[in-house]
Recover the amino acids of this structure.
C-alpha cells in the first residue's frame, strides 16, 4: 500500500469492489466447503499467536496478502460454528440475508445512539421488534404502540442486566441509582438459571450472595412453591425480594420454568418478573410451540436471541419491556452535547437510554433482511425441521441399549449418556471432538455427566445428524472395547 | 422466496454471490455518491415507520425487492456519518478494509466467548491489542505478555463500567460482588468527564450522588489540587474514595486532563486511575502527539476507540488493564456447561471474563485488516491530515471578525461561535444542519453556546472543510441580515 494522490492510503472504490467480490466468493465457498475443516479447532494454546509477527506493519500491505495470511494462519484456529456438524452449546445460526444485512450496516457506518443520529436506525428497530411481538405470540404490552417496547441488545446477559437494574430502581425508588444504597435486595432464579443472572447481580451491586437459586423439580423446572417459601423466609429475615428470572429453555437441558405459576408468586409479592427465552423463544412462532410463552403476558420483561436460532448473526438479542418509562428512567443521563429538539419533544425513542453502552450499530437491518427473506413461513419451516431431526435423534438414542436419555428431550436438544460412569462419558466427548467430525458439549444433571446434542445450525440436514449418531455409537464402542481389553 | 428442494428457504451460495456482488457495488457507489444526500436526515419522527407494513411478511420476498425498499423507505432516514461533510459529535470513520473485516467476521459467525470456542478469535485479539500498546506509546504493563492485557469492548462506556467494577471490588475486597455491600464508595471525574461515568456509577450501585465532578481550569482540564482537596474532605466525612477517571480529549472540547498530576493524587490515596482517551487516543501514534499519553504509564486502565478515529467501524473500543487478574476475578462466573480443559489449565484467555456480556463477535479481524492495510505509516498520515485541516479551519475562524474561537483548538476539534448571543448561534446551527450540506453539533462552554466542528471522516478533504467554512460564514451573514431587517 503506498500513498496515492487522490485518497491517500485509503482503499479506492474500485479496489473495494474487487476485494469485496473476492471476499463474497470466499464466503460462498466457505459455506459450501465448511465440512472440510475440523469443527472444533485442533490448535493448542499459543499456536495462532506464534504465527503472527511481534509488531504491526509500518507500511501497508496488499489485501490479497492479508487474506492469504488469514487462510494460512488464522483459519486453523477457527471453531466452525457454521458447520452443519456443530451440535455444541447452542446454535449461533446465521444466513445469507443476515450476513448481507451486517455488511450493509457496516458500510453505512451510522451511529444509532439517538433518534436524530439516524432516525431510520431507531425506527426500523422499533418496528421490527413490534413485528416480533406478533410473530412470537407475545403480549401487546411489549409493543412500542402500547406502554412498552423492544430494543436490540448484544446478548441476553445485557438484557438480563438491564431488567435487573430497572427492577432495582423500581424497588428502591431510585435509591440505588441516586445514592448507591442497595438496602437488602434479593433476586431469584433457579439452580438452572443462566450464569448471566449471577453476573448481573455482581455488576449491579446486589451481590451474588443475595441471589437465591431456587430448587427445581425432576424436569429441572423452577419449583414455584419453593420460590414462594423462600420469599416468605427472606422477608421475615428483613430482606427485600424484588426480582425473579424465569427461564424458557435453560442452557443446560432446555427446561421450561412454569412461568404462569411464577407470575402468580411475583404478583402476590410485587416482584419484577423477567423471562429469559434466549434460544427457545424462537420456537414459539410455531403454533404447536406457542405455549412456551404461556404466562409471559404477566412478565415485566422478556428476551430471546435471533442470533441463536433465527438465522441472524451475533449480536442480536431482542429485549422487551412492559413499561419503557421505567427502563429509560433507570438508564438515562443527558449531557449537553447530546441535547436536541427531537429528544426534548418526547416524540422519539433514543435507544442509548435502553442499554448500557451509548453507541450502537444498525443491527435491525440484518433482522429485517432475515424476516423479509424467509417470511414467517420460512422461519417456521426450518425450526420445525430442527425439532423433527431432534426427535429422530432422540429416538435413535433411546432405541440403543448402550445409551440412555437423561432428561426428556425438548425442542432441539437431547441430553443423553452412555450407560457407564462419568469418566467414560467425558472420554467419549473428548474423543468425538478430537475427531474434528462434529462438536458437541456436555452438562451435568444430578451429578451425571452427559452429552448435550443441540440441533440448530442453518445447514444441518438429516444426513449430518445420522452421521453424527453413527460416529457417537462407533466411538463409544471403540472406547468400550479399549477398556475391555485393558481389563 | 419459495421452498427449494436442497436447502429449504435458505439463500443458496449462488444467490449469495449474486446479491453479495450487488451489495458490494452498492456500497462502493454509496461511498462515491454520499454527498448527494443531506448529511443530517431531514425526516420527522414517525416518517420512516409510516412507510413500513404493520405486520411482517408471511411469505419470503426477493432480495432485490428488499434492497429496493431499503433505498426508497430507509435511506431517507439515514444520517450519513460517512459523508465527508459530517463534522458533528465525533467521527465514526470506517474504511474498506474494516467493512470487509466485519463482513468476514459475520460470515464465519464464530462465538468468541471462550478461547475454546474459537482460539483464533481470542488470540488475534490479544495479539493485535499488544501491537497497539506499542503503536500508541502505551506502557508495557498493558500487554498480555506482562501483567495486563487488552480486550475489545463495544464502547468506551462499557470499558469505563468494567474499570469501575474492578476498582469497586479492589476497594471492598469483593464485598460488593459477594454481598452487595457498597459501603461509602466515592468516584471522581471532572465536570467535563463523559456521561458514561455517571451511567456506570448508576449501574454499579455506587450512586450518581457519589460521583464527584471536580472543577476544571480555564482550559477545561481537571484541577488536581481540587481533586486532592475533595478526597481529603470525603475521607474526613467517612467516605471511601476509590476511583478516578481522567480524560484525554473530553467530548465537549477535547480538553486533556493532567494525567501525571492526577496519577500522583491517585497513588498517594491508593485510588484506581482509569484514562478515557476515546477519540484522542488514536493521535498518540504520531510522535508529535505522543505526549497525550504522558502519565498513562501510572494508570490502572485505559481505553480508546478505533471506531472513532482509526478507520474501524463501530463497535471497537480497545480497553487495557495493568492487572488482568483483578478484572477477571471481578467478572468471572463459571457454570458447568462452560467448563473445559483449556480454561482450567489457566493457559488461555477467556474473554467472557473481561466484559459484561458472555458472547462476542470476531471483532479483531477488522482491526487487523485496518492495521495491515494502512500500516502505521498510513494511519499516521491521515490523522496528521485531519489535524492540519483543523488548524487551517481554526485559522479561518480566528481571522474572521465575526467569529471567535471559544477554547484553543486541539487536534481535530474547533469550538467557536459567532459574535452574538446564544440564541443566534443556536439558530445558526439549526440553519446549517437543515441545509443538509453539512452536519455539526454544539456544546456550551462557561454558559456560552458554541459550534463544535470535528474533522475526522475518512474522505474529508480540504475542499470539504473550505466549503463548510464558506457555508458557515454565508449562513451567519444571512441570519444577521435577516435580524437586522427585522429591527
Amino acid at each position: 500500500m503506498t500513498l496515492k494522490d487522490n485518497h491517500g492510503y485509503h482503499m479506492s472504490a474500485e479496489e473495494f469492489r474487487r476485494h469485496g467480490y473476492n471476499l463474497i466468493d470466499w464466503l460462498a465457498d466457505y459455506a459450501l466447503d465448511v465440512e472440510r475443516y475440523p469443527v472444533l479447532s485442533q490448535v493448542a494454546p499459543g499456536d495462532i499467536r506464534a504465527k503472527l509477527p511481534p509488531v504491526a506493519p509500518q507500511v501497508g500491505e496488499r489485501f490479497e496478502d492479508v487474506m492469504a495470511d488469514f487462510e494460512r494462519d488464522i483459519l486453523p484456529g477457527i471453531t466452525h460454528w457454521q458447520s452443519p456438524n456443530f451440535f455444541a452449546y447452542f446454535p449461533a445460526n446465521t444466513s445469507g440475508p443476515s450476513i448481507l444485512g451486517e455488511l450493509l450496516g457496516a458500510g453505512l457506518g451510522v451511529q444509532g445512539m439517538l433518534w436524530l443520529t439516524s432516525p431510520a436506525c431507531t425506527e426500523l428497530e422499533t418496528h421490527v421488534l413490534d413485528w416480533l411481538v406478533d410473530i412470537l405470540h407475545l403480549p401487546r404490552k411489549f409493543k412500542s404502540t402500547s406502554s412498552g417496547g423492544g430494543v436490540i441488545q448484544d446478548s441476553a446477559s445485557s438484557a438480563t442486566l438491564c431488567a435487573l437494574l430497572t427492577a432495582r430502581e423500581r424497588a428502591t425508588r431510585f435509591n440505588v441509582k441516586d445514592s448507591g444504597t442497595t438496602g437488602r435486595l434479593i433476586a431469584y432464579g433457579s439452580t438452572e438459571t443462566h450464569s448471566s443472572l449471577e453476573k448481573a447481580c455482581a455488576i449491579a451491586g446486589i451481590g451474588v450472595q443475595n441471589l437465591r437459586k431456587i430448587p427445581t423439580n425432576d424436569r429441572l423446572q423452577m419449583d414455584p412453591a419453593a420460590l414462594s417459601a423462600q420469599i416468605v423466609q427472606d422477608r421475615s429475615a428483613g430482606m427485600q425480594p424484588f426480582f425473579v428470572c424465569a427461564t424458557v429453555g435453560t442452557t443446560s437441558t432446555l427446561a421450561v420454568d412454569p412461568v404462569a405459576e411464577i407470575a402468580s408468586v411475583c404478583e402476590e409479592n410485587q416482584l419484577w418478573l423477567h423471562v429469559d427465552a434466549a434460544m427457545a423463544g424462537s420456537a414459539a412462532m410455531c403454533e404447536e410451540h406457542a405455549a412456551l410463552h404461556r404466562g409471559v403476558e404477566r412478565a415485566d420483561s422478556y428476551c430471546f436471541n435471533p442470533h441463536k436460532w433465527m438465522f441472524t448473526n451475533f449480536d442480536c438479542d431482542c429485549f422487551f419491556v412492559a413499561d419503557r418509562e421505567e427502563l429509560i428512567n433507570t438508564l438515562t443521563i443527558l449531557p449537553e452535547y447530546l441535547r436536541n429538539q427531537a429528544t426534548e419533544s418526547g416524540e422519539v425513542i433514543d435507544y442509548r437510554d435502553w442499554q448500557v453502552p451509548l453507541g450502537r450499530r444498525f443491527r435491525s437491518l440484518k433482522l429485517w433482511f432475515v424476516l423479509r427473506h424467509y417470511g414467517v413461513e420460512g422461519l417456521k419451516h426450518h425450526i420445525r425441521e430442527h425439532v423433527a431431526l431432534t426427535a429422530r435423534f432422540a429416538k435413535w438414542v433411546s432405541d440403543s441399549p448402550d445409551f440412555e436419555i437423561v432428561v426428556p428431550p425438548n425442542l432441539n436438544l437431547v441430553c443423553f449418556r452412555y450407560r457407564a460412569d462419568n469418566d467414560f462419558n467425558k472420554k467419549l466427548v473428548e474423543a468425538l471432538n478430537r475427531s474434528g467430525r462434529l462438536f458437541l458439549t456436555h452438562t451435568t444433571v444430578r451429578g451425571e455427566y452427559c452429552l448435550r446434542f443441540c440441533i440448530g445450525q442453518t445447514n444441518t440436514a438429516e444426513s449430518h445428524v445420522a452421521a453424527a449418531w453413527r460416529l457417537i455409537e462407533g466411538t463409544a464402542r471403540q472406547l468400550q472395547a479399549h477398556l475391555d481389553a485393558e481389563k
